[in-house]
Design a protein that fits this description.
Layout lengths: L6 H9 L1 H7 L6 H8 L8 E5 L7 H6 L3 E6 L2 H10 L4 E4 L12 E7 L2 H4 L2 H10 E14 L4 H11 L26 E11 L1 H10 L2 H4 L3 H17 L9 E13 L3
Helix pairs in contact: 2-9, 8-11
């Protein structure tokens, strides 16, 4: 399975699962209503959390009352999910080899994940496991780079991305339109990630796959640059708690019956 995972995900998430749990923001409350109303989840429905990671988004799916199945290819992340959410059926698998039978789920949701496996093959496999009329939901939390200091933070992160797939490049959109799915419908929400600088800045950046996969000296250089940003930015300097503005992008498409 490792050969089917991008090297940044396999290396970075394999070693950085604990930091991922500490540093990643939650999702805005509006996402819960979106899951109920737009993705049509609820009691009696079954949803696949594809690329579920450590289960950061999975509780939002459980809150709908739907039965949740999680599929994740990185063993360290799947172990975190299984330990924290034992009520979820957690399976090792990839987006192009989902270990489920045909037409068995009402929805597939990919939170912070679809850019990793955006391909016609993955969409065909998602169509296979979706029931007729089922829905595909895609969700991403994104730092709001319209704020100047956030843009500078993003620049520190992006310099190390290499060939890692990222949401912001828009490359994932190239697989749409795709036969069997309706056009994507897009919604945006806003929120803030509030906490200590250690968690919402340092651990959030350290949890980025390609940064977690860097050699120690290069990871330290990224930490030093973040410390320099904090020292230079009045909104951050000397603060015990800070808030990082985020935008959440949510997309849905229906399987054509």
């Amino acid at each position: 399975m490792r050969n089917q995972i991008h090297h940044a995900a396999a290396d970075g998430y394999g070693s950085g699962a604990d930091t991922y749990v500490k540093g990643r923001p939650d999702y805005p409350p509006e996402v819960s209503a979106w899951l109920l109303d737009t993705v049509a989840l609820g009691p009696g429905k079954t949803v696949l959390d594809l690329g579920a990671g450590t289960g950061k988004f999975t509780p939002r799916l459980l809150e709908t009352g739907a039965t949740v199945i999680a599929v994740e290819p990185v063993p360290a992340m799947l172990a975190k999910l299984s330990a924290s959410l034992p009520q979820v059926r957690a399976l090792a698998g990839t987006a192009t080899a989902i270990p489920l039978p045909d037409a068995c789920v009402d929805a597939v949701v990919c939170a912070q994940a679809f850019h990793w496996f955006a391909s016609s093959g993955a969409l065909d496999e998602i169509l296979r496991v979706l029931k007729p009329g089922g829905k595909l939901g895609l969700v991403w939390n994104l730092r709001d780079a319209s704020i100047p200091w956030v843009a500078r933070l993003d620049a520190i992160v992006n310099q190390a991305e290499g060939d890692t797939p990222r949401y912001y490049t828009g490359a994932w959109r190239q697989v749409f339109p795709h036969a069997g799915f309706t056009a994507l419908q897009e919604t945006h929400f806003s929120q803030e990630h509030t906490g200590t600088p250690e968690d919402v800045l340092f651990n959030r950046v350290r949890s980025t796959s390609f940064i977690a996969a860097l050699p120690p000296a290069q990871r330290q250089r990224i930490d030093d640059e973040i410390a320099g940003l904090i020292a230079a930015e009045p909104a951050l300097r000397g603060q015990e708690r800070i808030s990082v503005p985020y935008r959440t992008a949510a997309f849905v498409a229906d399987k054509v019956s």
